[in-house]
Q: What sequence folds into this?
């Protein structure tokens, strides 16, 4: 089993950042191995041009959109909200 792929799937499903200890339990690896797996995942995502990246938040990990997409996604959120509020918009 490819632990990097499993880690990616697990992080994708989590609504909140996940601790090293929790990842270690899920993947049945030592806490020392977790940062290596996270780095491998981050490198994989970056090298393939993925729209996702791994973020560290207060020592925990989560998947997030890549920073280079921030401007586009902010604009998309504005347009999406405008479209939803437009009473003349088709359903």
A:
């Amino acid at each position: 089993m490819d632990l990097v792929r499993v880690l990616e799937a697990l992080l994708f499903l989590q609504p909140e950042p996940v601790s090293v200890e929790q990842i270690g339990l899920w993947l049945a690896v030592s806490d020392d191995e977790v940062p290596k797996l996270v780095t491998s995942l981050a490198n994989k995502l970056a090298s393939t041009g993925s729209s996702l990246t791994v973020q560290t938040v207060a020592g925990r990990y989560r998947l997030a959109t890549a920073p280079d997409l921030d401007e586009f996604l902010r604009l998309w959120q504005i347009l999406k909200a405008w479209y939803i509020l437009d009473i003349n918009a088709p359903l």
